[in-house]
Amino acid sequence: METMRVISAISVFEKVAKNKSFSAAAVELGVSKAYVSKVVNNLEEEFSERLFIRSTRKVKLTYLGEELLEKCQAPLEQLESIKESLQNHSLTPKGVFKVSVAGAFGEDYIAPILFNMSKLYPDLKLDISFSSKNVDLLDENVDVAIRVGDLKDSNLFARKISSRREHICGTKKFFKVNGEPKSPRELGEYNCLMGVGDSWSFLLKKKVEKVKLSGNIRSDNGRVLLRAALDNIGLVKLPDVYVKDYIESGKLISILDQYLVKDIPIWAVTHSKKKNSINLKHFLDLLENHLEKER
Predict the structure, then answer these.
(1) What is the CB neighbour count within 10 angstroms for residue 18?
(2) Does the domain at residues 95-163+265-294 carry the CATH identifier 3.40.190.10?
(3) Domain 166-262 fold
(4) Any idea where the domains of the chain sit in the sequence?
(5) Quick check: 87 pLDDT over 70?
(6) d(C-alpha 1, C-alpha 42), whole Å
(7) Sign (positive/negative) of CA torsion 68, 72, 73, 76?
(8) What's the pLDDT tens digit per position in 107-127?
């Protein structure tokens, strides 16, 4: 195989190994599954050995595959770094720009900015991923992620872009039937519509403490929990982007505000290896200009 074809084939192999799936690798590369299979088959013929153990449920590396992955990852990262460096000589965003977001903030604030980028820079391809989990930016090849709260990963380059407030809400009808809790500790007697985890955080005696709660509906989708609260089922704790309009219209009543953290930071984060990307710089400029107009 020619050198460039070998590099391209190993890059495809690495994506299959990382995703543990031919289909997922094809989606990430923007090619067909048949193409990915053909490239890997040709590579296996070149080595005269299997690189993957294939089954109907999963794809697993062989011993040779594991050895190849270990030896090729560093060179591939160097090539990716060179590619990004060359791209940054251009003043115009291009290539693939992958963004990880979550919830209504991603839908209502970040997505429109990305739509604007797509109009301004036709050579730019956008990959917008929604997940409530903190993805591994390098492993998932994410250029920038929008994260909320305290950051713990020292390898991340972060810029604060906004902040949010959370509210505990219920309808007038719910409070009329069930009464209104006067402190966070009383919430244990109420049906609390839970997201991820089994507790809500409060400021109690100037310290942030978690109060364990329960309810008959759990979801990692904020809009689903909002609908349940509007349907008089229980109490919900959500950011203002979800509930602000409903509070202002009187459809929801916000309670226990004095016990909630006032401003929770929202960050745009990237791995330190990607912080000088021209795509990222243009995104952050558009983001800050857009959010400044919203304030």
Answers:
(1) 16
(2) yes
(3) D-Maltodextrin-Binding Protein; domain 2 (3.40.190)
(4) 3-87, 95-163+265-294, 166-262
(5) no
(6) 9
(7) negative
(8) 888 999 999 999 999 999 999
168, exposed or middle or buried, with CB in 10 Å at 0-12, 13-18, 19+? Answer: buried
Contact 217, 193 (CB under 8 A): yes
pLDDT at 1 over 50: no
Q: Which of 280, 284, 195 is nearest to 235 (CA)?
A: 195
For residue range 150-203, what is the model confidence (pLDDT) as tens digits? Answer: 777 666 788 888 888 999 999 999 999 999 999 999 999 999 999 988 999 999
User: Do residues 209 and 253 make contact, with C-beta atoms less than 8 angstroms apart?
Assistant: no
Residue with tokens 């591939």: 76
Record the pTM.
0.62
Hey, what amino acid is at 163?
A: S
Q: 222 with 195: CB under 8 angstroms?
A: yes
CA separation, residue 50 to residues 13, 29, 54, 63, 125 (Å): 12, 22, 10, 9, 34
> Would the pLDDT of 22 be above 70?
yes
Residue 87 tokens read as: 């791209």
Tell me the residue length of the chain.
295
Q: Residue holding tokens 């959370």? A: 166
